[in-house]
Amino acid sequence: MSKLSALGCEPVTGNPLAPKKRDYKVTNRLQEGKRPLYAVVFNFIDSRYVNVFATVGGNRVTIYQCLEGGVIAVLQSYVDEDKDESFYTVSWACSVDGNPFVVAGGINGIIRVIDTGSEKIHKSFVGHGDSVNEIRTQTLKPSLVISASKDESVRLWNVHTGVCILIFAGAGGHRNEVLSVDFHPSDMNKIASCGMDNTVKIWSMKEFSSYVEKSFTWTDLPSKFPTKYVQFPIFNATVHTNYVDCTRWLGDFVLSKSVDNEILLWEPKVKEQTPGEGVVDVLQRYPVAECDIWFIKFSCDFHFKEVAIGNREGKIFVWELQSSPPVLVSRLSHLQSKSVIRQTAMSYDGSTILCCCEDGTIWRWDAVTNSSD
After folding, report:
1. Distance, CA of 75 to CA of 65 (rounded, Å)
2. Which of 86, 94, 99, 308 has the fewest Cβ atoms surrounding its Cβ within 10 A?
3. Residue 194: strand pairing partners
C-alpha cells in the first residue's frame, strides 16, 4: 500500500495473522485499591524516566517504576483533598527548566499539575465546566498540555504559567462530550479530538501561535490572559457510527476507535474549496474482539511500531502498525484477568505492556525472548 510506505510499512507475505516471534508473559499483578483505574501512562517526556509510569483511580495519582524481573516499585502517591474526586486521565509534562510534572483530571473538571520533585501541587487549572476525560502533552514543547472535557470543549494550557491559552469550542465544535485528544507529532499547530458526537475533528492553532509564545512569559494572573476561542476545525470526519473514545496521530494519518470492536487507521483529506469538510480514506483495520463498550483507550510504543489495546474481558491485543496488511503480534490473556481493561501503556521499546483495570488492578506483561531469536 503506497500510502503506508511513508510510515515505513512493508508488505508482508504469508499468513497476516501469524504471530511475531516476540510473546509476552505476566510478570506482576498489583491490587492498587478497590476503585477502578482509568489511566496508566509511561513517561516518554524525559529519557531519564522512561521506565516510570503513573496511574489514576479515585482521588489518587500514583507513580511507579518498572524494575528488572517484573518488579514494580511505588515512588510517590498523591491523594486529592476532595474525597469525591475521581481521576479519569493522567499525562506527563515538565516545567521550562525540565522538572517532571504529572497532570491529572477527572470528574470535578479541575486539572491538578503535580511537581514530582517537590511532591506538591504546582498549579490547579479551573475552567472546564464538567469532567475532564483526557489530557495529552505536546512532546515538542512539554510545558503545553491539552484537555478534553464533557463540557464539549478542548482547552490548551501552559503548565509553567498556569495560563489557559486556547479553547476549541463553539459553532463548529463538538456537540457532546469530548473523550480523547492528541497533538500532532511534528506539526506544532495541529490537534485531533473526538467524542460522543461520533466525530473526529482536526484543529489548527497556527493563527494563534503568538498567544502560545506569550503564555510562556506571562507574569500577571492567569485569569487575565487573553484566552482565545477556536470555533471551527479545519477537518471534520465521521469515520465511526458511534462514540469515538480514543484517537492518536500516526504521522499525518489518524488512529481512532469506537465501540465497534476495531481500531481504524485513516487518512484525512482536506478539500481546499470547502475548509472543514473532507474525505476520509480508511487504510487499515485492527480488529479487537469484545471491545464494544466505551472508554477503552489504546497505546503505542515510542516509535509507533505497535499498538496495544485491552477489552472488556481482560484480554490485550497487540497489533503491528508498520506492516500492511496488519499483523496481530500477540493476544494476551490470563485466567485471573477478567475485568475491563480501561487503558494500556507500552514501554519505550514495547518490551513491557501495562494495563489498568476496572477492578483496581495493574498488570505487567514482559516480552519473552524465544530461543530461536
Report:
1. 7
2. 99
3. 180, 200
Judge if the upstream peptide bond of residue 325 is cis by omega within 30 degrees of 0: yes
Largest Cα separation within the chain, whole Å, is 63
| CB contact at 8 A, 357 and 342 | yes
Torsional class of 152: left (φ above 0), alpha (ψ -120 to 50), beta (otherwise): left
DSSP string, 97-134: T--EEEEEEETT-PEEEEETTTTEEEEEE---SS-EEE
Taking alpha carbons only, the member of 282, 193, 286 closest to residue 245 is: 193
Q: Indicate the pTM of the whole model.
A: 0.94
Among residues 345, 349, 346, 352, the alpha carbon closest in space to that of 366 is found at 352
Residue type at 131? S
Cell of 128: 472546564
Beta bridge partners of 230: 168
CB contact at 8 A, 92 and 54: yes
Closest CA to 154 of 194, 113, 206: 194
Mean pLDDT by 10 residues, the chain (373 residues): 50 45 90 96 95 98 98 98 97 93 98 95 97 97 98 98 98 97 96 98 96 97 97 95 97 97 94 71 97 98 97 98 93 97 98 98 92 50
Joined together, the cell numbers standing for residue 367 give 516480552
Cell of 166: 486556547
Cβ neighbours of residue 131 under 8 Å, at least 6 residues apart?
A: 88, 105, 106, 107, 108, 109, 149, 150, 177
CA distance 302 to 8: 15
Cell readout for 294 is: 466505551
At residue 12, the pLDDT reads 42
Grid cell digits, residue 178:
469530548
Taking a C-beta distance cutoff of 8 angstroms, is the pair 296, 342 a contact? Answer: yes
> Hey, which bits of 12-143 come out as E strands?
23-31, 37-42, 52-57, 60-66, 72-79, 87-94, 100-106, 111-115, 120-125, 132-137
Angle (CA) 243-246-248 rounded to 5° is 140
